Amino acid sequence: MGCPAPGAAWTCMFLLLLLEGWAGPSRAQESKVLNGEECEAHSQPWQVGLFQGNQLLCGGVLLDANWVITAAHCKKPKYRVRLGDHSLKKKDGSEQELAVAQSIPHPCFNSSRQNHNHDLMLVKLHRQASLGPKVKPIRLTDRCAQPGQQCTISGWGTVTSPRENFPDTLNCAEVKIIPQKQCENVYPRKVTDGMVCAGDSSGADTCQGDSGGPLVCGGVLQGITSWGSDPCGRPERPGVYTNICRYLDWIKKTMNKKD
Is 73 a catalytic site residue? Predict the structure, then answer.
């Protein structure tokens, strides 16, 4: 995928505060799941947390034993990847914490522009993750999501907004894909075809701490939590996700590239 000028694109409905780390003036660097509830433990085995020490930076998604995908605005000089987690305080033996070998933002992402374009990053793990029922990669989509399609968002981001209240356990919410034109009308001149919007009438939404986490539709990864309204969880202002179907070539080429 090239680096087109920002264009208008989608109509969205917002996920409630789940994952951390949104970009830009809207709510970048922070995201969470609002109007959601605790996920069934390990029902999202591809869910990843990015941490500096015990501080949650962002979410992420496991693509295979070597690779995680997250939002480009989540990049830090140093961080670690945690897999197989549900409760951040209580350990159940399924957790894995791995060092990062490489962080590879999309080449068209420009952190200084604050426009959320091309907000995705591949993270190569220092060693392979041990895969099993509680740590399992998700399949990438092979087609773009359709308006009205039901999806799941997840994360450890704040569950209230604007006051922040970060949960101990992974939270989930159900949202629907919003028509592109509708989302474009909500966020004039900010939405491109590299973005997809999702939300619901209750205000389910991602928020501070949820950035980089998954938008899963029909069992495949359709989006990465990127940005949205501030405060989060406004039914008329959906969450905005990096539209994975527009970046499949770059993702596959980068993961298959030999060092």
Answer: yes
Please give the DSSP secondary-structure letter assigned to residue 135: B
Q: Rounded to whole angstroms, what are the CA distances from 34 to 23, 127, 164, 220, 227?
A: 18, 34, 11, 22, 14
Q: Tell me the sheet residues that pair with 223.
A: 215, 243
pLDDT computed for residue 163 by the predictor: 64
pLDDT, tens only, 182-201: 999 999 999 999 999 999 88
The CA distance from 113 to 84, in Å, is 34
**Active-site option among 85, 119, 205, 230:** 119
pTM for the full model? Answer: 0.86
Write down the catalytic residue from 26, 42, 73, 116: 73
Clarify whether 119 is annotated catalytic: yes
* pLDDT tens per residue, range 64-91: 999 999 999 999 999 999 999 999 888 8
- Taking a C-beta distance cutoff of 8 angstroms, is the pair 10, 184 a contact? yes
Instruction: Measure the CA–CA gap between 127 and 134, rounded to whole angstroms.
Output: 18
Instruction: Return the CA Rg of the chain.
Output: 16
Whether 178 has a pLDDT exceeding 90, the answer reads yes
Which residues sit opposite 122 in a β-bridge?
A: 69, 104
Residue 259 annotated as catalytic = no
What pLDDT, on the 0 to 100 scale, is given for residue 259?
Answer: 60
SS3 103: strand
Strands 80-83 and 47-52: antiparallel
Q: Which candidate in 26, 103, 154, 211 is catalytic?
A: 211
